[in-house]
Amino acid sequence: xxxxxxxxxxxxxxxxxxxxxxxxxxxxxxxxxxxxxxxxxxxxxxxxxxxxxxxxxxxxxxxxxxxxxxxxxxxxxxxxxxxxxxxxxxxxxxxxxxxxxxxxxxxxxxxxxxxxxxxxxxxxxxxxxxxxxxxxxxxxxxxxxxxxxxxxxxxxxxxxxxxxxxxxxxxxxxxxxxxxxxxxxxxxxxxxxxxxxxxxxxxxxxxxxxxxxxxxxxxxxxxxxxxxxxxxxxxxxxxxxxxxxxxxxxxxxxxxxxxxxxxxxxxxxxxxxxxxxxxxxxxxxxxxxxxxxxxxxxxxx
Length: 301
Fold this sequence. Notes:
It is built from eight helices and 13 strands. It is an alpha/beta fold. The chain has two domains: 12-150, Rossmann fold, CATH 3.40.50.10740; 155-297, 3-Layer(bba) Sandwich (Glucose Oxidase, domain 1), CATH 3.50.30.60. The strands form two sheets. A seven-stranded mixed sheet has the order 6-13-12-7-8-9-10. It has a six-stranded mixed sheet with strand order 2-1-3-4-5-11, with helices on both faces. Residues 13-128 form the LD-carboxypeptidase N-terminal domain. Keywords: Carboxypeptidase, Hydrolase, Protease, Serine protease.
C-alpha cells in the first residue's frame, strides 16, 4: 500500500466527528498533544454539533469529513471519538482528491470503517488513540502515535500469553474492531485479508455476540488465508445468566483452531489505556515464540 506523507512540525491536523458527538472542552488534552508536537489543530464544524448521539447530522458529518479530505492544507485527519455513525456517511464520501493528495487518517474503534475503505483504495492509515479521553492513555501509547505520524520506527516486544500459537509471519497488517469488520461483510468496504496479518479488538460485547461475529468472519473467508493473527484488547465483555462457557480469547482461538498460522493474544492495542499505534496497511513481521511476541513494521523513508 501507499504511504501518505509523514507529518512535520507546522503541519495542520484536522479534528472531526464522524460518529459520536464531542464538545470543544473534550479535546483540550488532544489539542495540547498536537501543539506540543509542533502541529496545528484545525477543528471541524462537527466539533460541538449535536444530533442526538451523533456529532451533527449525517449530512454535516459527511460534509465536514469531505472538507478535511479535500483541503490540501490539512495534512492529517484525527477522528475525535468512536462510538457509532461512520458507516452512515461512508457512501457519501468522495475520495478522488484524497487519492491525488493522500493524508493520514487516525483513530480506532468505529474509525475501522474509514481504515477499511481507505485500504481498499490502497493507502496506509494509523490505528491509534483519539483526542477524546487521551488523558487516560499511557505515555507509551501517545509516544507510539507520535512515532507513527512522524515516520519514526514502530516496533513492539510483548510478553507471552497463554493461548498464543507460535510461529512467524510477514504481511500487511489490516483489521480493527471486530464488530465493525463484521458489519462491513458483504459491502464494498469489506477488507481482503488474503496473505495479510489480521488485527482484531473489541469492547463491551456479550460473549455469544463475539462468537457470532467470529463465525461470520470465518464463513466469509476472512480467517482462512491470513498469515497471522494479532488480538488486542477484548475489553469489558459480558456473559448471560447461563454462561457461554468460553472467554472472548477462547472464542477467537476456537474460530482459528484449524489453521496453522501464528496467533498473538493480549497485544496492547484497542480499547485499552495502553493503546499503541499500528500502521494499518503497512507490511510487518510477526514472531510469536515461548518468550513472547514481536511485531515490527517495515521502516519506509
